[in-house]
Amino acid sequence: MPAKKILVVSGKRKTAIARAVVKPGNGRVRVNRIPIEVFEPKIAREKIMEPLFQAGDEIWKQLDIDIKVSGGGYMGQAEASRMAVANALLKWTKSAHLRTVFANYDRTMIVGDSRRKEPKKFGGPGARARDQKSYR
User: Fold this and answer.
1) Where in the chain are the domains?
2) What does the longest C-alpha to C-alpha distance in the chain come to?
3) Is the pTM of this model over 0.70?
4) Which residues have a Cβ under 8 Å from the Cβ of 83 and sit 6 or more positions away?
5) How confident is the model at residue 2 (pLDDT cuts 50, 70, 90)?
6) Can you tell me the distance from the alpha carbon of 32 to that of 36, in angstroms, rounded to the nearest whole number?
7) How many CA atoms lie within 13 A of 19 on its CB side?
8) 117 confidence band (pLDDT: 50, 70, 90)
9) How would you label 25-38 residue by residue, b for 16+ Cβ within 10 Å and e otherwise?
């Protein structure tokens, strides 16, 4: 019995982490077991669908993509999912043309944004803000 091809790719954005599992299928995309067609909010759904539209129907309609995402807010989760989907399509197709299409559209689809929250320090309420002095 030949082994089925399954690909697991992750994406990160801020504190959100998404894992995309890609296998041969007929174009089903699910985010946390919810079909992408009914996923809310709409702006997050469109963000996740961007790499699929850029790749074209003939590529992703042959695949089933299951995304599990946790942490962060809904937009950070959407962007982490988007990165996972884009990198999964790149790994699945091994296409240099698709990589240039994604990079020209938006480079953050394939390359992560490494910015993170700066840790809080002593002497103030935040990372840089300090308590005020009055001298009175």
Assistant:
1) 7-109
2) 82
3) yes
4) 11, 12, 13, 18, 108, 109, 110, 112
5) low
6) 10
7) 7
8) confident
9) eeeebbbeeeebee
